[in-house]
Amino acid sequence: MIVADVMTRNVISIAPEATVVDAVNLMLSHRISGLFVVDAAGDLAGVVTEGDLLRRDELGTERGRPWWLKLLVSPARQATDFTRAHGRHVRDVMTRDVISVADDAPLETVVATMEKLRIKRVPVTKDNRVIGVVSRADLLRALLGRVRGAEPVRNDDTAIRTAILDTLEKQSWAPMTTLNVTVAKGVADIWGTITNEPERHAIRVVVENTPGVQEVHDHLVYIEPYTGTVIEGPDATV
Fold first, then answer.
1. How far does the chain reach from its first CA to its final CA, in angstroms?
2. 3: closest CA among 84, 122, 148, 146?
3. What pLDDT, on a 0 to 100 scale, did the predictor assign at position 68?
4. pTM beyond cutoff 0.70
5. What is the pLDDT of residue 74?
6. Mean pLDDT value of segment 153-161
7. CA nearest 173: which of 190, 153, 196, 144?
8. Is the dihedral of CA 125, 126, 131, 134 positive or negative?
9. More confidently predicted of 122 and 61
10. How far are the Cα atoms of 2, 47, 79, 88 from residue 43, in angstroms, in the given order?
11. What is the strand order of the sheet 34-38 is part of?
12. Using an 8 Å Cβ cutoff, are 63 and 155 in contact?
């Protein structure tokens, strides 16, 4: 999937000349935590979020520093902090460096960007014009849609077993030389020896996610390397 498949096209934005009060009212009325700032030409100029409005003179939360620390902070940084705390317009408080993605970018790019920058939304741009936005909620909706649109359940035990083994063979961590799966009337039994407990959980996930599987019985055996203790599967049903 690419960004265009999941992005929200109706973007709520604000102009740099708008007031901080305008931005707050817009965020509260739409129940959102941030706004993209778009200039008169339609270009992305920045973003203003709740975090940009935390250090405000009106709240008594303006950043204060002891005199000795002020000696270490550049005048430019101090001036910037003052503007953010006292500025009346969006251009005074917004974050100007905004990372955006193209509408044909893979979702992996969006997720990696969100994780790296610890942000909740990414603007989608084309020729520096904002054409959409991808949020974490959009990704969750896409996930739900994929789950609902999963391929129809197959009742053929042979086909189910083949699908399980084919999927496992593609995983570099799967111990295929000691692993086997049998399927009867949709009930999958997992047999074999594993080298660590995380493998057990991952194998179960593969089996559980295979269309047509109704139950999973775990008979995997893990031998603890230090004590030689044999830890067998819980033989649980899911």
1. 30
2. 122
3. 75
4. no
5. 85
6. 80
7. 196
8. negative
9. 122
10. 23, 12, 27, 22
11. 13-14, 34-38, 44-49
12. no
Number of neighbouring beta carbons within 10 Å of residue 117: 10
Q: Which two tokens stand for residue 221?
A: 């055996």
Look at residues 141, 147, 145, 164 and name the one whose alpha carbon lies nearest to residue 213.
164
- Residue 92 vs residue 58, higher pLDDT: 92
Q: Which residue has the higher pLDDT, 141 or 50?
A: 50
Q: Which residues contact 156 (CB under 8 A, 6 or more apart)?
A: 212
β-partners of residue 191 are: 180
Task: State how far the alpha carbon of 183 is from the alpha carbons of 28, 159, 186, in Å.
Answer: 54, 9, 6
* DSSP labels, 56-73: -GGGT------HHHHTTS
What does the pLDDT average to over 106-126? 91
